[in-house]
């Protein structure tokens, strides 16, 4: 029990520090986040307290109002923090890959299966919807990368549905914050065993990251491990 108590005590400062860091990052992109969150909490608590006085139970409704107000503040802060994070990531190379890492269970994601010298990138996700190619970069340049990947997939697995979209804010593009929901809304047509087969075929085919040449020579810092200071 003592160990568990010590672990919880040690975890709380870390959690508070993380919340403070998230608030600091959010306030840079959304300076009014503190006022808005506080306003939501005060209004929610005030409404419950007023109802409590009207029905003759201010203490009970006050306690309930405090809990509901805290929950409402957490929800509003979480949504604005998420929006601020997406705003900072928008337009950054590899931003879509970061979103795909958190797409959820049932999906196997592979970043940067194709890339050109201009840093236009195509990522891949495999799930019950089939294969999804997610491109980020210049729409005119990245279309050729998508076409090449779709041709490759059609050659090795012609019966598997392949979807594709470009991440961006232009017409016909998917905003970064909607990448996850766009994937989850796709129709589910593949059973679990077929997903495994598709992943095995893609793994055998390889991708850009696995086919990249590995630089020869010692890894920096590895040779220093066995040396002792004189």
TrEMBL record:
The keyword Transmembrane helix applies. InterPro entries: DUF4191. It comes from the Bacteria. The chain crosses the membrane at residues 33-53, 59-78. Residues 208-230 are annotated as: Disordered. Keywords: Membrane, Transmembrane, Transmembrane helix. This is Membrane protein. The lineage of its organism: Bacteria, Bacillati, Actinomycetota, Actinomycetes, Kitasatosporales.
């Amino acid at each position: 029990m003592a160990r568990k108590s010590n672990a919880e005590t040690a975890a709380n400062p870390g959690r508070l520090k993380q919340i403070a860091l998230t608030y600091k990052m959010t306030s840079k992109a959304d300076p009014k986040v503190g006022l808005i969150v506080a306003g939501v909490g005060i209004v929610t608590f005030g409404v419950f307290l007023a109802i409590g006085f009207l029905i003759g139970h201010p203490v009970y409704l006050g306690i309930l109002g405090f809990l509901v107000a805290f929950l409402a503040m957490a929800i509003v802060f979480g949504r604005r923090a998420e929006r601020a994070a997406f705003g900072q990531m928008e337009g950054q190379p590899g931003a879509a890959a970061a979103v795909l890492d958190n797409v959820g269970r049932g999906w196997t994601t592979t970043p940067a299966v194709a890339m050109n010298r201009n840093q236009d990138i195509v990522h891949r996700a495999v799930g019950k919807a089939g294969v999804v190619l997610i491109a980020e970069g210049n729409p005119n340049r990245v279309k050729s990368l998508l076409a090449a990947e779709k041709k490759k997939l059609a050659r090795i697995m012609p019966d598997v549905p392949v979807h594709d979209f470009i991440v961006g804010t232009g017409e016909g593009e998917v905003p970064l914050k909607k990448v996850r929901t766009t994937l989850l809304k796709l129709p589910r047509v593949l059973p679990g065993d077929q997903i495994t087969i598709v992943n095995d075929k893609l793994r055998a085919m390889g991708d850009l990251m696995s086919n990249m040449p590995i630089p020869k020579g010692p890894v920096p810092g590895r040779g220093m491990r066995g040396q002792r200071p004189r």
